Amino acid sequence: MISSNFGFGGERAAQLDLSGDATLRDLLTEVAKRYDYRLLAPDLSKVVDEVQITVNGKDHLFLPKRLEMPLSEGDEVGIHFYPLGGG
C-alpha cells in the first residue's frame, strides 16, 4: 500500500504490483513514471529534497539499506511532499 499527501489519480492511496524482489527504489521509479512525479534524483541515487519517504512508518534514511530496502507484501510506503510556503 502506498499513501501520500498528493494523490494518485484523485486517490490518497494506491497499490502497485511489483516483482517479488522489488526494492524501494524500484517502487519509487514506477510511481514516478506512472504519475509523472519527480521523486528521485536524475541518477536515481537519492530521494529529492522536497519528499519524505517512509516504509512501515520509518523514514527511509534510517533503514539499513535505504533505497535498496527489499519490499514485502503488506509493507506500507508513504510518499509525502513537504509543505511549501511563501510570503
Describe the structure.
14% of the residues lie in helices and 26% in strands. By secondary structure, the protein is an alpha+beta fold. A five-stranded mixed beta sheet has the order 2-1-5-3-4, with no helix packed on it. The longest helix has 12 residues, at 24-35. It is globular, with a radius of gyration of 13 Å. The model has no long low-confidence stretch (mean pLDDT 87).
Structural classification = alpha+beta
Q: Termini separation (Å)?
A: 36 Å
The side-by-side strand order for the widest beta sheet comes to 2-1-5-3-4
The overall number of domains is 1
**CATH structural architecture:** Roll
- The oligomeric state is single chain
CATH topology: Ubiquitin-like (UB roll)
| Strand percentage | 25-35%
**What coarse outline follows from CA principal-axis ratios?**
globular
Overall pLDDT: 87
CATH superfamily: Beta-grasp domain
- pLDDT < 50 stretches: none
